[in-house]
Design a protein that fits this description.
By secondary structure, this protein is mainly alpha-helical. The protein is built from eight helices and three strands; from the N terminus they run ααβααββαααα. Strands 1-3-2 form a three-stranded antiparallel β-sheet. Helix 3 packs across helix 4.
Length: 185
């Protein structure tokens, strides 16, 4: 039985496709990822086309995008000259790669632009003060967020897991450090 033939696998693949669209990812890309994630064995592009009923061009585009995120890779199967594909099965590695790529594509260029705007606005006497202040605050906020991510991504996986499991309890440790300070943003 192919994994895609199981109704729960099919439900997951369809849901992953819908969820992907909510995050700005093409439905086909998300469905290809879901299928590869659930598959025990590497799959060819042709097998993906057949399993999902997608156009070959959509599968090809999806595989390129997923490889760009480094959450799917091409592998070779002995005795078969075709390319096969597998998804990253480690959820933490998958999450960190997705976040890293989204940061590189979306956040970093925004931080760079906000930095340029803040620099220009500093000397622009015609600019309304609130514009200067808000652009500056947004630049500082996203810069802080980006810096936090750069620090967190270097933590060992067990430390990340422990931090996630602590959840809101971490506030008991951090709250005394920030006593008396109110967050501006």
């Amino acid at each position: 039985m192919r994994v895609v033939d199981h109704p729960d696998a099919r439900a997951f693949i369809l849901h992953w496709g819908e969820m992907g669209t909510q995050w700005g990812v093409n439905r086909s890309v998300s469905q290809v990822h879901a299928l590869l994630y659930l598959s025990e064995d590497p799959l060819t592009a042709e097998a993906i086309v057949e399993a999902l009923g997608l156009a070959r061009s959509n599968v090809s585009t999806a595989l390129k995008e997923l490889q760009g995120y480094r959450i799917v890779r091409r592998v070779h199967v002995e005795g078969d000259r075709r390319d096969h594909f597998v998804a990253e099965a480690d959820l933490w590695d998958m999450l960190m790669r997705i976040v890293e790529e989204r940061k590189r594509r979306e956040i970093d260029p925004t931080i760079a632009l906000l930095g340029e705007l803040a620099e220009r606005l500093k000397d622009d006497k015609a600019a309304p003060p609130h514009l200067r202040e808000r652009i500056g605050r947004m630049h500082e906020f996203l810069g802080t967020l980006g810096g936090w991510y750069d620090q967190v991504r270097t933590l060992p996986k067990p430390t990340l897991v422990a931090l996630m499991k602590l959840g809101g309890k971490i506030a008991r440790v951090v709250a005394p450090l920030g006593k008396g300070k109110k967050a501006k943003d």
